C-alpha cells in the first residue's frame, strides 16, 4: 500500500526521537545527528520505520516546540515505536494480573488502538467502557501500571474519563 507523504518542510523541521519516545531534537536537519539517547541509551530515529516518512519536529520561527513526539506516523498512520512499546507493555502487564483471563486480554488488545489516540475515534467511548470494566477485574496494580503507560499517548479527555 503506497503512503502519502505530508510535506511540512515549509513550516516545520524534522524531529529526532529515541525509540522510547524521548525527543532528542526538534531541529534534526540542522543539528548533528545524535544516534543514541542521552536519557535511556536507545537508538534514535528521524523517520518512521514503517514508511520512512520524516517525523514532524519544531515549527520554524517559533520558540515553543513539541515536548512529546507524535504517537502515530502522519504519513502512514502506523504506531510509532514508542507508542507500540507502550501498548505492548500494557498487554504484558495484563498477562501477570490474576484478575484478568484470556478473553479479557483479547478485549484489551482490541481496544488499545481506540484508547491510544490523541483524538477520539468512533469507538473510543466503547473502549473506555470496556477498559473501566477491565480495571475493576484487574485491580489497582493494573490501573496504576496502565495509567503510567498510557499517559503520553491518550487524549486529555480519555485520561479524565479513565482515571478520575
The rounded Rg comes to 17 Å
Largest sheet features? 3 strands, antiparallel
Categorize the overall geometry.
Answer: elongated
Distance between the termini: 40 Å
Strand coverage percent: 5-15%
Strand order of the largest sheet: 3-2-4
Judged by helices, strands and strand pairing, the structural class is: mainly alpha
SSE succession? EEEEEHHHH
Task: Show unreliable segments.
Answer: none
Mean pLDDT: 90
Number of strands: 5
Helix content: 25-40%
Number of distinct helices: 4
* Number of individual domains: 2
Explain what this protein looks like in three dimensions:
There is one protein chain. The protein is mainly alpha-helical. The protein folds into 2 domains: 10-78, no CATH class; 82-163, no CATH class. The chain has helices spanning 81-95, 102-115, 124-150, 156-163, and strands spanning 12-14, 16-18, 23-25, 44-45, 56-59. The protein has a 3-stranded antiparallel sheet, with no helix packed on it. The termini are far apart. The mean pLDDT is 90.
Summarize this structure as a short list of keywords or feature phrases.
two-stranded antiparallel sheet, 164 residues, 2 domains, elongated, 4 helices, mainly alpha, three-stranded antiparallel β-sheet
Amino acid at each position: 500500500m503506497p503512503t502519502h507523504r505530508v510535506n511540512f518542510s515549509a513550516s516545520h523541521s524534522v524531529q529526532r526521537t529515541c525509540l522510547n519516545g524521548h525527543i532528542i531534537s526538534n531541529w534534526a536537519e540542522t543539528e548533528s545527528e545524535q544516534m543514541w539517547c542521552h536519557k535511556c541509551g536507545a537508538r534514535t530515529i528521524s523517520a518512521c520505520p514503517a514508511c520512512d516518512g520524516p517525523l514532524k519536529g519544531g515549527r520554524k520561527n517559533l520558540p515553543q516546540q513539541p515536548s512529546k513526539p507524535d504517537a502515530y506516523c502522519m504519513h502512514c498512520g502506523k504506531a510509532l515505536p514508542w507508542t507500540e512499546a507502550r501498548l505492548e507493555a500494557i498487554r504484558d502487564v495484563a498477562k501477570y494480573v490474576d484478575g484478568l483471563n484470556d478473553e479479557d486480554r483479547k478485549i484489551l488488545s482490541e481496544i488499545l488502538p481506540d484508547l491510544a489516540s490523541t483524538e477520539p475515534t468512533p469507538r473510543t467511548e466503547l473502549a473506555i467502557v470496556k477498559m473501566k470494566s477491565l480495571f475493576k477485574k484487574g485491580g489497582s496494580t493494573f490501573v496504576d501500571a496502565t495509567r503510567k503507560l498510557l499517559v503520553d499517548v491518550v487524549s486529555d479527555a480519555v485520561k479524565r474519563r479513565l482515571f478520575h
